[in-house]
Amino acid sequence: MLGASFDSPEDNRTFAETEGFGFRLLSDADRSVGRAYDAARPDDDPLASLPLRVSYLIDPDGVIRRAYLVTDTAGHAAEVLADLQSLT
Length: 88
Description:
The protein is of the alpha+beta class. It contains 3 helices and 4 strands, in the order E-H-E-H-E-E-H. The protein has helices at residues 9-19, 32-36, 73-87; strands at residues 2-5, 24-27, 54-58, 64-69. The strands form 2 sheets. It has a two-stranded parallel sheet. It has a two-stranded antiparallel sheet with strand order 3-4. Strand 1 (2-5), helix 1 and strand 2 (24-27) form a beta-alpha-beta unit. The longest helix has 15 residues, at 73-87.
């Protein structure tokens, strides 16, 4: 599992340590990954500096099996785990 944010590596490190993340939080300061994975908002959006919360379930071959626009952060992990189990 990986996470990505538009913040700097230093800000991401601090945030991940504070929140106790058990995975790496990568810096996408130029937003290139966010654009490639449809997580970047349009430049004219008032919230353009913030990525959309998007998750992808990617299989070992690199195929995207499911895309999620995350609106329920509390229930998201359970949804992904259920989908993962149904794929195996």
